[in-house]
């Protein structure tokens, strides 16, 4: 390091007397001693204790009801049927019953869940084309190679939406009925819209530019994924604006779960209905399931109610810290 | 001739070198190197390919290149290519920039040297040429004080007989003048036309690196003349005392002996480096283990569970079987987990070391004002090793001492001069502020000379006969040569600094040595010019240990003045002066006790007749061929008997460098063993040992080993060993219950409480270093507090260092200033050169250079300690961080079917090491201080953990990786638990992989940042900036790469759009992060504070002290005055060369004209001997060094 400095004079090579160069920068040097650490510990313990109590209270006001319908009720019939691939074409619907001992007050969320379904396999997760889903026309007709092995069908037509994730969409449908004490049945109204993140619905998933064409025309030249019953532009027959890549169920499905056992939002209780303004009343319920063509290891429906769901584990920390 | 040359060329090209003067065409045929030197490695065009090639040869870089190729295979690529290429390119660029700047400076210094001007004889006149254009065979002219351009054969010079003087400081560190003489037949070629006609051909050895050997033959005018080292001037020498000289270039540029000596220095590595490499290999093994486990897991999963999933995800053609899928997964995981081998580790370590080096360069407390030299870290890769030094090998001359002799005290006729007393008759310590005697009345005085006792100059002015005689003696009895640059400006050229000091003292007290001819000495005594006839010089030699002159003063009296070692002079004193002898002897002991070099002086009047008779005998003796030296010695002895009249002694201070005893004491407290290796004599070395507190009178025993045969040495070593053992056994027997425990040697070593010192001679060392004795030597030496090796050759210095390095496994540091220390500096783990002195050779070969020995203390105890401390903390944190970061993938593997799915976003993986967490840890590595520099010096014991390797070793590594694994485990499973059943407030599901990735990444960044915060001991503004800045940057980048805008442009590369905003707006996420942080950090925190409270180390205690003293003003440090308590009598230790007396009386070295042409035959005979004598001696030296070279090559 032959640094040459152009400072004149006899002390030309004298280093500068700056705090930085002389390593004398003013500094705070804390020391970990009992006097400094213990008060901090106690303080943290107190905070965590308070947090824990608060969490415990909120958790108690939440209710949860879980129903595994794989073989529940009449569904064992469908389950058996799906085991045999030759029956794949036939539809199958079944019914399961359950009852709520206490009413679910407030917002009620209706989830479907899967067990041992690996949405988190690397090849599975990669098998999608975000470019296509955001409505790029080039990707629509020419899906990315990541979608392999679901890029094109046997005729070489591009699949829309391509990839393994979209292909394996969860397409069981549910209808929930409430049976009150008088034996009357009410259909529980579920809001099937607005169950996605804002960014997903509005940024990440877009339909290709429609201009004057209908959605069906835009998707001309593509084929529906192998396991789908209806093409992407006809997913929601009730609401034409919920079709194409911006279909809520598709978006929810495309947000891959981190673990093999997971749940996804199916709908929210529509409380404008006079019968359900307070939430779900106690009583017996039945659920009609339109069994999908594919057998998944285990399928669960969660019914959940509550304002906040917070990990209980937070409480554990308080206990842990309380030790100190 | 021509034909022969061709044959020679063809057959013996390697063996002989033919150079013909003034014949470029002839010389061109051999394609000798020209005089351009090139130490740089690259030029603009070759930089990129060569540098890239070199860098990719490094294991770490190659590893990442392999990874990169793996990532290009789609079947196994679990990470995008950019996760590897971004860090790799960054690392390559940083290293390339560093290499380029280094090379730029090399280019610049090359250019500066190549463009120096020289005068070349061509076309009948002298032309100015750049150095690089000088060619072999050219005749060049050198002027006084110029550097010698290339290795040249001296043809003629301005001095008589073709003599010229050179200083070889840059070559071998010796600052005394050396004589070179041209061949007689060429010495009269003094003018240009004659030189133009010179067409001699030199046949000589091929280029080699032997500085003191040259063999060749000059063919000229059909005669052969042998050439040797005495006729060659080597590149790097400086011409002195010679107006001009002409020479013929024999070796140029890279073929010169100087450049041949600048071999590639072998790359030094620190022990941390080596440890790091081992650890990286272990991590590799660990990585492969993990890969195998996960690969097997994949096989099992595929065959058990994956089968059911094939409807949704059909197997690709390659994954035909579960086993093969497992194999592919193995590679995928190798890619995924590659970050356990931290790529940025090496480059970060380099950056840290560079930073530490700059701190050394910038340290004002290591800047020497007098020579305007700042400390310089010339190697930037060894800093932390400075914190682990156990052995320091020091040169003496110029390192411990200044190599400046100062006349400081004398005793004349029983009266002592030189001490200053105050009004109460108390001795005053002499400092810079003490008023010194004013010599300005003397126009010829040397302004640099300082003397503090006014009574001496009073005595001179009062014409005290004894005092006057004393100074007369000093002015007459010496072999100093004189150069009068201008009227009154006298420059003394002495071959030993002692003599110069004495003559200068005489000069200032009014006895100025003005001129010298072979037969006269002219003094200017108190303003009067007095000429003495020089009748004889009775030269110095090692046996006589004295020299005398016989002069006839203007009054016609013949006097013999003599000076020499006290013992020698005392023996020859006339018994009548016994009383005086007693007093003087007392004074001598006193001087010696202060560490001064003493010399006794005496004179005698000679009877005219007696002298005549003696002189005849002398003339006769000097003509005899056989036993001439013996006969002369007898004669000298005869006339030097019965010295009397006046007995005086002088004390010369071999000035220690400032602060040497304090530094040695301080380093001793830090358990650093100091060995002095010197070329000096035993007495001198011991004397210095005492004066710098290395040897002390209160030491139990100083063993002196000076045997000449293997057996003697062995015996001496063994008996010393016996002595120590017997003594300590006696000591141990005292507390008998312990004696059994210390049976083995290594434990025994620790129990030696008594202090010993070992002094060993060069001859003995040669034997002691032989394989059968080296262990005995080493064991003995390690039991001693101080070791001094004297009379050692440069090669032996290196051997001693090598011995310790090899058998002790300890870090060694060698410090020296001269070329004779180069080998030792290169051998030791760390070489330190003292710069600012005349020779630069040592500094150039060194790793660190500074001006004064005392800076070693700061270099080791402050910079070294800090570097080591910082590096260790840095590494510990670095490994912790990478394990915590990477192993999350391992745990995730069990939940994602071992499919090598990454937990984090690819961008996070790319940026984590190089952006999010690099600066805080670098900040800590650069600025952290556990203890201030002040306290590091105050408590040298703080240095010991470094020597014992406590801060970073395999155990520490395990602990930190364990901590990292624990953190990754907690990190993953806390999030797993949380996400298993988490939902957002609006009910939408939340257990998706992207939200999981963002949350866990945020937790990780916060956890490792809190951890670095806890590890930082010294929070400067920069640390604050780095730590808070990194967290801020993390969030900024997080939101940036998950923003709508960037997704709009590259939808497939930034699929995480909106995750951060939807995720981090959740209260529950923050609760999870808080929980994770607390759970991950608290155990470590608890352990560390409990450790400090329950088992505080010295560092903790000093830190505590420092904290409590913070508010008070730090107390001024009392300079630790180390008093010398030696009563050791030093001997006359002249670094003198025999033969110069003859040189003077022969008049050979006098300007032409002053020598009387009429010489007696005896005289001629006599005079031709001096050169032989000198040459004979230098041959002895070269023989020795030749053997060394052989040894070295074997």
Automatic annotation (TrEMBL), chain A:
The keyword DNA-binding does not apply. It comes from the Eukaryota. The keyword Membrane applies. InterPro entries: CDC50/LEM3_fam. Pfam families: CDC50. One of its GO terms (biological process) is phospholipid translocation. Keywords: Membrane, Transmembrane, Transmembrane helix. It is found in: Membrane. The chain crosses the membrane at residues 37-57. GO terms for cellular component: endoplasmic reticulum; Golgi apparatus; plasma membrane. Belongs to the CDC50/LEM3 family. This is Cell cycle control protein. It comes from Scophthalmus maximus (Turbot). The lineage of its organism: Eukaryota, Metazoa, Chordata, Craniata, Vertebrata.
UniProtKB/TrEMBL annotation, chain B:
Residues 1105-1128, 1145-1166 are annotated as: Disordered. It comes from the Eukaryota. It comes from Scophthalmus maximus. The keyword Nucleotide-binding applies. Mg(2+) binds at residues 395, 397, 817, 821. Residues 1105-1127 have a biased composition (Basic residues). Its EC number is 7.6.2.1. It is a multi-pass membrane protein. One of its GO terms (biological process) is phospholipid translocation. This is Phospholipid-transporting ATPase. GO terms for molecular function: ATP binding; ATP hydrolysis activity; flippase activity; magnesium ion binding; phospholipid transporter activity. InterPro entries: ATPase_P-typ_cyto_dom_N, ATPase_P-typ_P_site, ATPase_P-typ_TM_dom_sf, ATPase_P-typ_transduc_dom_A_sf, HAD-like_sf, HAD_sf, P-type_ATPase_IV, P-type_ATPase_N. The chain crosses the membrane at residues 79-97, 279-301, 321-347, 874-895, 907-927, 957-983, 995-1014, 1026-1050, 1070-1090. Residues 19-85 form the P-type ATPase N-terminal domain. GO terms for cellular component: plasma membrane; trans-Golgi network.
């Amino acid at each position: 390091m032959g640094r040459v400095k152009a400072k004149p004079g006899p002390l030309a090579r004298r280093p500068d007397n700056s705090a930085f160069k002389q390593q004398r920068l003013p500094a705070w040097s804390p020391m970990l001693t009992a006097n400094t650490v213990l008060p901090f510990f106690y303080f943290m313990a107190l905070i965590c204790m308070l947090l824990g109590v608060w969490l415990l209270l909120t958790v108690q006001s939440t209710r949860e009801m879980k129903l595994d319908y794989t073989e529940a009720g009449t569904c064992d019939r469908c389950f058996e049927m799906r085991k045999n691939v030759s029956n794949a074409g036939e539809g199958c619907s079944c019914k399961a019953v359950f009852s709520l001992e206490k009413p679910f007050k407030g917002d009620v969320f209706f989830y479907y869940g899967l067990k041992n379904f690996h949405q988190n396999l690397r090849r599975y997760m990669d098998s999608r084309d975000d470019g296509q889903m955001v409505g790029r026309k080039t990707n629509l007709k020419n899906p990315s190679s990541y979608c392999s092995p679901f890029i094109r069908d046997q005729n070489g037509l591009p699949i829309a939406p391509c990839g393994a994730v979209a292909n394996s969409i969860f397409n069981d449908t549910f209808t929930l009925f409430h049976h009150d004490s008088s034996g009357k049945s009410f259909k529980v109204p579920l809001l099937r819209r607005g169950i996605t993140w804002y960014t997903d619905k509005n940024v990440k998933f877009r339909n290709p530019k429609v201009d004057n064409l209908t959605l069906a025309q835009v998707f001309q030249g593509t084929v529906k994924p192998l396991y789908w019953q209806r093409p992407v532009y006809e997913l929601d027959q009730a609401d034409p604006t919920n079709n194409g890549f911006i279909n809520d169920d598709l978006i929810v499905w495309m947000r891959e779960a981190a673990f093999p056992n997971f749940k996804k939002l199916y709908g929210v209780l529509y409380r404008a209905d006079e019968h359900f303004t307070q939430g779900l009343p106690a009583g017996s319920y039945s659920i009609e399931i339109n069994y999908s063509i594919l057998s998944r290891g285990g399928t669960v429906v969660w019914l959940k109610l509550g304002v906040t769901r917070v990990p209980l584990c937070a409480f554990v920390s308080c206990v842990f810290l309380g030790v100190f | 001739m021509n034909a022969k040359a061709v044959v020679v060329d063809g057959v013996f090209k390697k063996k002989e070198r033919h150079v013909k003067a003034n014949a470029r065409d002839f010389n061109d045929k051999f394609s000798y190197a020209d005089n351009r030197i090139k130490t740089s490695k690259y030029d603009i065009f070759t930089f990129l390919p060569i540098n890239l090639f070199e860098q990719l040869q490094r294991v770490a870089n190659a590893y990442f290149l392999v990874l990169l190729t793996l990532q290009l295979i789609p079947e196994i690529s679990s990470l995008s290519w950019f996760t590897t290429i971004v860090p790799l390119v960054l690392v390559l660029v940083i290293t390339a920039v560093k290499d380029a700047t280094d090379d730029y400076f090399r280019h610049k210094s090359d250019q500066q040297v190549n463009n120096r001007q020289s005068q070349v004889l061509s076309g009948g006149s002298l032309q100015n040429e750049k150095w690089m254009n000088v060619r072999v065979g050219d005749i060049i002219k050198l002027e006084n004080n110029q550097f010698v351009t290339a290795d040249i054969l001296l043809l003629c010079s301005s001095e008589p007989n073709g003599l010229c003087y050179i200083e070889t400081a840059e070559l071998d560190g010796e600052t005394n003048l050396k004589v070179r003489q041209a061949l007689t037949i060429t010495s009269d070629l003094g003018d240009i036309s004659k030189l133009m006609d010179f067409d001699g051909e030199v046949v000589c050895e091929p280029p080699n690196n032997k500085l003191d050997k040259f063999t060749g033959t000059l063919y000229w005018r059909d005669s052969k003349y042998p050439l040797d080292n005495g006729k060659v001037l080597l590149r790097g020498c400086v011409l002195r005392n010679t107006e001009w000289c002409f020479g013929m270039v024999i070796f140029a540029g890279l073929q010169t002996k100087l450049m041949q000596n600048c071999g590639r220095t072998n790359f030094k590595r620190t022990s941390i480096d080596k440890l790091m490499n081992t650890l990286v290999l272990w991590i590799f093994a660990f990585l492969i283990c993990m890969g195998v486990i996960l690969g097997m897991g994949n096989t099992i999963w595929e065959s058990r569970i994956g089968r059911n999933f094939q409807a949704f995800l059909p197997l690709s053609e390659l994954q035909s079987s579960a086993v093969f899928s497992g194999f592919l997964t193995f590679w995928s995981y190798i890619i995924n987990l590659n970050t356990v081998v931290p790529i940025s580790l090496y480059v970060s370590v380099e950056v840290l070391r560079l930073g530490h080096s700059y701190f050394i360069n910038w340290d004002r407390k290591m800047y020497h004002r007098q020579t305007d030299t700042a400390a310089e870290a010339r190697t930037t890769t060894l800093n932390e090793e400075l914190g682990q030094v156990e052995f320091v090998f020091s040169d003496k001359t110029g390192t411990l001492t200044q190599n400046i002799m100062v006349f400081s005290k004398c005793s004349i006729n029983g009266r002592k001069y030189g001490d200053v007393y105050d009004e109460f008759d108390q001795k005053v310590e002499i400092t810079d502020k003490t008023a010194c005697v004013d010599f300005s009345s003397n126009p010829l005085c040397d302004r640099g000379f300082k003397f503090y006792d006014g009574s001496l100059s009073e005595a001179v002015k009062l014409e005290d006969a004894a005092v006057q005689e004393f100074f007369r003696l000093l002015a007459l009895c010496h072999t100093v040569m004189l150069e009068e640059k201008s009227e009154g400006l006298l420059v003394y050229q002495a071959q030993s600094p002692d003599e110069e000091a004495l003559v200068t003292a005489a000069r200032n007290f009014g006895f100025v040595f003005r001129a010298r001819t072979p037969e006269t000495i002219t003094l200017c005594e108190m303003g009067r010019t007095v000429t003495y006839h020089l009748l004889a010089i009775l030269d110095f030699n090692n046996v006589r240990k004295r020299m005398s002159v016989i002069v006839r003063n203007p009054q016609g009296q013949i006097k013999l003045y003599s000076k020499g070692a006290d013992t020698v002079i005392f023996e020859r004193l006339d018994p009548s002066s016994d009383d005086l002898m007693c007093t003087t002897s007392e004074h001598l002991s006193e001087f010696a006790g202060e560490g001064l070099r003493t010399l006794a002086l005496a004179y005698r009047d000679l009877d005219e007749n007696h002298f005549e008779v003696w002189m005849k005998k002398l003339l006769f003796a000097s003509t005899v061929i056989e036993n001439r030296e013996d006969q002369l010695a007898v004669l000298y002895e005869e006339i030097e008997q019965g010295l009397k009249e006046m007995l005086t002694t002088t004390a010369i201070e071999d000035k220690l460098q400032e602060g040497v005893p304090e530094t040695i004491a301080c380093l001793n407290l830090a358990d650093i063993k100091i060995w002095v290796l010197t070329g000096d004599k035993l007495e001198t070395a011991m004397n210095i040992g005492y004066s710098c507190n290395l040897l002390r009178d209160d030491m139990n025993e100083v063993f002196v080993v000076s045997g000449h045969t293997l057996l003697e040495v062995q015996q001496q070593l063994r008996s010393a060993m016996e002595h120590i053992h017997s003594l300590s056994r006696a000591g141990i027997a005292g507390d008998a219950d312990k004696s059994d425990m210390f049976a083995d040697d290594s434990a025994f070593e620790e129990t030696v409480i008594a202090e010993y010192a070992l002094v060993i001679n060069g001859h003995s060392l040669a034997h002691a270093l032989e394989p059968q004795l080296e262990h005995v030597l080493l064991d003995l030496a390690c039991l001693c507090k101080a070791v001094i090796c004297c009379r050692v050759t440069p090669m032996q210095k290196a051997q001693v260092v090598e011995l310790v390095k090899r058998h002790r496994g300890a870090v060694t540091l060698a410090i020296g200033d001269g070329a004779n220390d180069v080998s030792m500096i290169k051998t030791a783990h760390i070489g330190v050169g003292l710069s600012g002195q005349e020779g630069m050779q040592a500094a150039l070969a060194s790793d660190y250079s500074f001006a004064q020995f005392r800076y070693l203390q700061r270099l080791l105890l402050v910079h070294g300690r800090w570097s080591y401390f910082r590096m260790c903390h840095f590494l510990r944190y670095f490994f912790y961080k990478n394990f915590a970061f990477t192993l999350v993938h391992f745990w995730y593997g069990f939940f994602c079917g071992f499919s090598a799915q990454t937990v984090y976003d690819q961008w996070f993986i790319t940026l984590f090491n190089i952006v999010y967490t690099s600066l805080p840890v670098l900040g800590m590595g650069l600025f952290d201080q556990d203890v201030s520099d002040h306290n590091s010096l105050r408590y040298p014991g703080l240095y010991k953990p470094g020597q014992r390797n406590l801060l970073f070793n395999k155990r520490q590594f395990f602990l930190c990786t364990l901590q990292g694994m624990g953190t990754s485990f907690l990190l993953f499973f806390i999030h797993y638990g949380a996400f298993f059943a988490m939902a957002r407030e609006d009910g939408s599901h939340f257990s998706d992989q992207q939200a999981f990735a963002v949350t866990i990444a945020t937790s990780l960044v916060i956890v490792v940042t809190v951890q670095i915060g806890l590890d930082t001991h010294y929070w400067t503004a920069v640390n604050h900036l780095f730590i808070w800045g990194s967290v801020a940057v993390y969030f900024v980048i997080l939101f940036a790469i998950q923003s709508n805008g960037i997704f709009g442009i590259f939808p497939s590369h930034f699929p995480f759009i909106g995750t951060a905003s939807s995720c981090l707006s959740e209260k529950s996420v923050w609760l999870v992060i808080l929980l994770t942080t607390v759970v991950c950090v608290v155990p470590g925190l608890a352990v560390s504070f409990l450790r400090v409270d329950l088992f505080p180390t010295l560092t903790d205690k000093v830190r505590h002290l420092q904290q409590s003293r913070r508010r008070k003003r730090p107390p001024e440090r009392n300079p630790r005055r180390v008093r010398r308590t030696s009563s050791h009598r030093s001997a006359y230790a002249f670094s003198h060369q025999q033969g110069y007396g003859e040189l003077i009386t022969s008049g050979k070295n006098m300007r032409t004209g002053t020598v009387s042409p009429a010489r007696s035959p005896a005289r001629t005979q006599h005079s031709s001997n001096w050169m032989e004598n000198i040459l004979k001696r230098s041959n002895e030296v070269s023989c020795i060094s030749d053997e060394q070279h052989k040894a070295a090559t074997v």
